[in-house]
Amino acid sequence: MGQIPIEISSLTSLQNLQILNLADNKFSSEIPSRFNNLKNLTYLNLSNAGFMGQIPIEISFLTRWVTLDISLLLFIWATSET
């Protein structure tokens, strides 16, 4: 179990990345909010990856979703305060 490697965090600079599969890992950190920089992402699989905490609200800003798999994870969806 560990933190998300810095190399994965740097994936957020890949503007044309469409598919990201991080399933079945043993991370013990939160999902980086910088994933919202992946504007062309259509598929994100985080199932059984060990992430914890809140799902960053920034992920909802991605507009090209086809699949988001967060199965087998216990998260709290972050909401903006009104």
From TrEMBL:
It comes from the Eukaryota. Keywords: Glycoprotein, Kinase, Leucine-rich repeat, Membrane, Receptor, Repeat, Signal, Transferase, Transmembrane, Transmembrane helix. It is a single-pass type I membrane protein. One of its GO terms (cellular component) is membrane. It is found in: Membrane. Pfam families: LRR_4. One of its GO terms (molecular function) is kinase activity. InterPro entries: Leu-rich_rpt_4 (IPR025875), LRR_dom_sf (IPR032675), RLP23-like (IPR046956). This is LRR receptor-like serine/threonine-protein kinase At4g36180 family.
